[in-house]
Design brief:
This protein has 367 residues and is of the alpha/beta class. Helix content is 50%, strand content 9%. Strands 2-3-4-1-5 form a five-stranded parallel sheet, with helices on both faces. Strand 7 and strand 8 form a beta hairpin.
């Protein structure tokens, strides 16, 4: 019964040349087989889920397949599970799961929770969006920007950031040399275009966006603008997320003012913070603020991440212990939280490291 589904693959493998990369094909097969295995023996599978060798095929592999082959593979994959309601097995669009994860795992960020869920839900409900969704996350390192980006990937795409529909760019790693700007432009344009051609609802995450050259960021502008197509490709169902430390000072100053006034941080509203954040972004130095993405008003939401308080660090430590299935005490949580550096020093209010260093701190308590 499944033989017709395999015939195109068998035929393709007999074609002389480098049409397929066998490593990628093997990787893809392991991914699909792992999916079936996990649905039958869920408990046995948990230890394998983070195996870096079991990944979704890379974008390069999928770009070599025709639409017919992709459809065949999709039908084969979906025959093993209920995963094709939206027509693409790679896409989950589990907004309810995203909302639950943000509520349970993200601490001290009531604004980010609200804005991200509403923005993603509203965008996915629109079958014909006018432009790609663009979110810009701002705040100190360790406040949860990268964490939320990965949560979005995990709930919208099967396999999270390993999914071929998701591209993660880290500015210092992928674009380290200013003299290679023209090379990076071509690579970035081809990477985005190829991903969207093979996966209409694609996700692009740019970490440390402030370190990208403005000319490189401007390369992305047409893909985020109000165009029905660019060179024959429709990018309007794509999602772009930028992570940056820009605006951290403005966010922290407002949080400190709120604390000194005796108000709760949960009283901070987007109307209080977003104008200051936008202004701080426009006046800051760096490629992101100087790019036409910002001046052209293509960023839909500037999402602030507040500085973490002592109580939030304790919650992060609790989550880290639970994730490792290690028993903990309140004293252990306090020990982890006390090991952080806080500001202002005299008040020890906000952690300068957020939850980023918690895994290292709890290692002292692990057997």
């Amino acid at each position: 019964m499944l033989l017709p589904l395999f015939l195109p693959l068998i035929g393709a493998l007999t074609v002389k040349g480098d049409f397929f990369q066998l490593d990628s094909l093997s990787n893809m097969s392991r991914y699909y087989l792992n999916y079936v295995y996990c649905n039958i023996w869920e408990e046995e599978c948990r230890s394998q889920q983070e195996d870096p060798t079991i990944q979704v095929p890379t974008g390069d592999f999928w770009s070599s397949l025709t639409a017919d082959y992709i459809q065949v593979l999709s039908e084969l994959y979906c025959s093993f599970g209920q995963c094709c309601d939206n027509g693409d097995c790679r896409i989950l669009n589990n907004v309810t799961g995203l909302e639950r994860d943000l509520e349970e795992k993200l601490h001290g960020q009531h604004l980010a929770k609200e804005v991200v869920v509403n923005a993603v839900r509203g965008f996915l409900k629109n079958s014909m969006p006018e432009k790609a969704l663009a979110l810009s996350f701002h705040g100190w390192s360790g406040t949860g920007k990268n964490f939320v980006g990965r949560m979005i990937a995990e709930n919208l795409y099967r396999g999270g950031v390993k999914n071929e529909c998701v591209r993660l760019y880290i500015a210092p790693f992928h674009f380290p040399h200013a003299k290679l700007l023209d090379v990076y432009r071509v690579q970035l344009m081809e990477g985005i275009k190829t991903t969207v051609q093979n996966c209409q609802q694609a996700l692009f995450i740019f970490d440390e966006a402030e370190k990208m050259h403005p000319g490189l960021l401007d390369t992305i502008k047409p893909y985020m603008d109000y165009y029905d197509n660019v060179d024959g490709t429709d990018f309007r169902k794509s999602i772009f997320i930028f992570l940056s430390n820009i605006g951290g000072s403005a966010i922290n100053e407002l949080a400190l003012d709120i604390w000194h006034s005796g108000q709760d941080r949960e009283d901070i509203a987007m109307d209080d913070l977003e104008p200051r954040l936008r202004n701080d972004v426009l006046e800051s130095q760096g490629g992101f603020s100087q790019s036409r993405l910002v001046s052209g008003n293509l960023i839909d939401f500037f999402v602030p991440f507040l500085p973490m308080e002592y109580r939030h660090v304790k919650l992060c430590a609790r989550d880290a212990f639970r994730a490792r299935e290690v028993d903990y005490t309140e004293q252990m949580l306090d020990e982890v939280a006390k090991g952080m550096v806080y500001f202002p020093k005299e008040e020890k209010l906000f952690s300068t490291q957020g939850c980023k260093s918690v895994p290292q701190r709890i290692s002292f308590f692990l057997p």
